[in-house]
Amino acid sequence: MPTALPTRTFSALALLTGLLGLSPRPAPASGPPVAIAIHGGAGTISREDMTPEREAAFRATLEQAVRAGHERLLAGESSLVAVRTAIVLLEDSPLFNAGRGAVFNADGVNELDASVMRGRDRAAGAVASVRRVRNPIDLAIAVMEHSPHVMLAGEGAETFGAEQGIETVDPSWFHTEFRWEQLEAAREKETAGDIVTADFFSTVGAVALDRAGDLAAGTSTGGMTNKRFGRIGDSPVIGAGTFADNASCAVSATGHGEYFIRWVVAYDICARVASGSSLADAADTVVNGVLVEAGGTGGVIAIDAAGDIAMPFNTAGMYRASVDAAGNVFVGIYGDE
Predict the structure, then answer these.
(1) Which residues are CB-contacts of 289 (< 8 A; sequence separation ≥ 6)?
(2) 97: which residues sit within 8 A by CB, 6+ positions away?
(3) Do 60 and 40 form a contact (C-beta atoms < 8 A)?
(4) Which partner from 39, 49, 164, 239 sits 20 to 30 angstroms from 333, CA to CA?
(5) Is the pLDDT of residue 186 over 70?
(6) Largest CA distance in the chain
(7) Per DSSP, which regions of the chain are E strands?
(8) Which long-range CB contacts under 8 A does 289-293 form with residues at least 24 apart?
(9) Is the pLDDT assigned to residue 10 strictly greater than 80?
(10) CB 140 within 8 A of CB 123
(11) In what order do the strands lie in the sheet with 309-310?
């Protein structure tokens, strides 16, 4: 069974520092380096469209999640536990398009995808199009740890989850007015004959390095608003939206999934690192070179065996946070941060 959840409530300190934009540096710990990075989606994110209260809420949640994952690493737990800890907190927040805050498909239903990969042995698990699983990342981990498969989908995935004791909820758990209004707006544009384009790709993910030198990556999403025909993007696809290998790096992606699948973005970055590129160069080349030339938009978070972190994106902004190997905490939203 996955490790028990951290507290779901904000601490007064986390909320206060998020509101004030402060990120006090934790006390350094001895031993091999640990580090973690998370994201909450990339796209057209501008200060003009963000109220101070909403921005503070995003920053507080990102900081809470990255600190919670980092605390697990400092306690000597695995990178997989840290990744799960951070993603569960993001899935339980209505702010992000994953878990509780998932978007609606064309039928007015929430369909969730997630994947996870462990760098030590390339073990991986993924789920797609599940509708009642509270935390899809938990089901992805169960697929990895308790089945001979890599990806399960739909009712079959939920049946397997029930056998594993994975928590399910009534579909109303995922209903938020903000996401419903997004669906109605998309439907209106479609009815009017307007071309509906996605200008924000709200996925959540985490990558981490633990004391043992093991890397892990995980990604979770509700997909695209008004999606049809059982559409599945890159988030549950190993090599596209998620990849981890101790010999190179760990990556979680967010963006226009069809491009990330076709250009196997997460794997490509790690392959370049394995061939001698620095993490920063590899991630930037793929996100701001390969993807841009192909017409794809989005971003990634990546971490290597030394604890170096890269978080490039080719959109106006990306919700992101990290605690590096020196213990420095960073929380960012906009491109100029």
Answers:
(1) none
(2) 41, 103, 179, 202, 203, 204, 221, 222, 223
(3) no
(4) 239
(5) yes
(6) 61
(7) 35-43, 112-118, 123-130, 151-153, 200-201, 203-209, 215-221, 242-244, 249-255, 298-304, 309-310, 317-323, 329-334
(8) 290/263, 290/265, 291/255, 291/259, 291/260, 291/263, 291/265
(9) no
(10) no
(11) 242-244, 249-255, 298-304, 309-310
The three-state (H, E, C) secondary structure of 148-199, written as one string: CCCEEEHHHHHHHHHHCCCCECCHHHHCCHHHHHHHHHHHHHHHCCCCCCCC
- Residue 334 sits at the vertex; the CA angle it makes with 332 and 337, to the nearest 5 degrees, is 60
- Are the C-beta atoms of residues 152 and 164 closer than 8 Å to each other? no
Tokens of 229: 């025909």
Domains located in the chain, CATH noted:
33-334 (3.60.20.30)
Tens-digit pLDDT profile for residues 192-229: 765 555 545 579 999 999 999 999 999 999 988 788 88
**Set 17, 61, 203, 297: catalytic member:** 203
Task: For tokens 């509101």, name the residue.
Answer: 19
Residue 48 has what DSSP assignment? Answer: G
Q: Which two tokens stand for residue 211?
A: 């004391």
Does residue 252 contact residue 132 with C-beta atoms inside 8 Å? no
Tell me what pLDDT residue 201 has.
Answer: 59
Residue 13: per-residue pLDDT: 34
Q: Is 159 annotated in the active site?
A: no
Strands 123-130 and 151-153: parallel
* CA pair distance 306, 312, nearest whole angstrom: 18
Residue with tokens 């980092």: 70
136-146 and 154-163 are packed helices; what angle lies between their axes, rounded to 10 degrees? 70
Return d(Cα 124, Cα 126) in angstroms, integer: 7
Q: Which two tokens stand for residue 264?
A: 């196997």
Say whether pLDDT at 78 is over 70: yes
Contacts of 54 (CB under 8 A, 6+ apart): none
Instruction: At 83, list the tokens.
Output: 């990744």
